[in-house]
Amino acid sequence: MPPADNARFLIEASKQRHQQARHRAQQAIEAAERRGTRPTVVGIARAAAVSRSWLYTQSDLVAAIGQLQQRAPAGSGRSRSAPASDASLRRRLEASLERNKQLREQVADLTARLEAAHGELRRLRTLTPQGASHATDTR
Length: 139
Prior knowledge:
By secondary structure, the protein is mainly alpha-helical. 73% of the residues lie in helices and 0% in strands. The protein contains six helices and no strands. The longest helix has 42 residues, at 86-127. The two termini are 62 Å apart. The model has no long low-confidence stretch (mean pLDDT 86).
């Protein structure tokens, strides 16, 4: 007996999930419109519990978000922080470079210590006869 073909059930379930996701996204867009806020794809995706990548595949929903963005005033959404100044970015870069330098020095020190430890192990193995480690075994 051949295995049952359950593909139609999988296809139907997939269609239902797709329709439910679209419905949630449309509701999130409508809610943003009622609030008068300036929606973003990220915000709508989060509110609708869908992925941004999926939302971007729905061109009509993205277009609706774009239309709302055109209508809503720019300051109505979440307040944006000012971009970092050049001086701030330079300080962050300098701090990162200094940290990288410290880490490189630490790695070099640890590498040298590891090499010394391996050398010491090798030296001790050459001094110890092969059977000596089993000589103390009193089974």
